[in-house]
Amino acid sequence: MISTQSLIALFLAYLIGSVPTAVWVGQIFYGIDVREYGSGNAGATNTFRILGKKAGIPVMLIDVFKGWLACFLAHWFSNYNPDSIQFANFQLSLGIIAIVGHIFPVFAGFRGGKGIATLFGMVLAIHLQAALICCLIFLVILIFSHYVSLGSMVASFSYPVLMIFAFHVGNKSVILFGVCVAVLVLVTHQKNIERLLKGKESKSYLFKRKSQN
């Protein structure tokens, strides 16, 4: 039976995830709703595409922090040993609820983003080392291909592989979570995959391209 303490934590995790960073930044500082442009998603990728790095970077960092903070609630609202399977499972539940909040935010008419940045924050909280390697993989793919979506997909598929073969994680729930991450990213990027195959996917540049004379 779920305790009142756990229910409060899950509710807070949903509220944290529901903070519509991209929507608020767009409306407050630029006077636009990013959901009406580009891919129509209220996430970091679409913010980069529509508003540029000055808006995209803060949105991405805050959305990542949302996922991490939701998982960190486990330290405040549970009595489990941080090294126990029960603690890891509770963190998973909190992180998943935060992602649901990001995708269906109560503060923005339940129209949110894909949850990738928030998912990454959750991944950081669950297994920091694997997450950092995935971050490096993402950056390498982005720098050489300029496709955020491709970097996200390759990094997400690397996560369960790293946990199983590099870090030998024994918690089956965490392994299942890693596999679900890869599947979720694949499902939420179906349109991106179609655009990539057709050569129509928008590119993002971390550094300004040199002007050609």
Architecture blueprint of SSEs:
Elements: H1 4-18, H2 21-30, H3 44-51, H4 53-77, H5 85-103, H6 116-126, H7 128-145, H8 148-166, H9 172-188, H10 190-198
Please, could you describe this protein's structure?
By secondary structure, this protein is an all-alpha fold. 71% of the residues lie in helices and 0% in strands. The protein has 10 helices and no strands. It has helices at 4-18, 21-30, 44-51, 53-77, 85-103, 116-126, 128-145, 148-166, 172-188, 190-198. The longest helix has 25 residues, at 53-77. The radius of gyration is 17 Å and the shape is globular.
Which descriptors would you attach to this protein?
mainly alpha, 10 helices, 213 residues
Strand content: under 5%
Order of helices and strands: HHHHHHHHHH
Helical fraction: over 70%
Query: What characteristic shape results from the CA principal axes?
Result: globular
Taking the sheet with the most strands, its summary is: none
Helix/sheet category: mainly alpha
Poorly predicted ranges? none
**Mean pLDDT score:** 90
Task: Tally the beta strands.
Answer: 0
Rg on CA atoms, Å: 17 Å
| Number of helical segments with 4 or more residues | 10
End-to-end span in angstroms? Answer: 68 Å
Describe the structure concisely:
The protein is mainly alpha-helical and 213 residues long. The chain contains 10 helices and no strands.
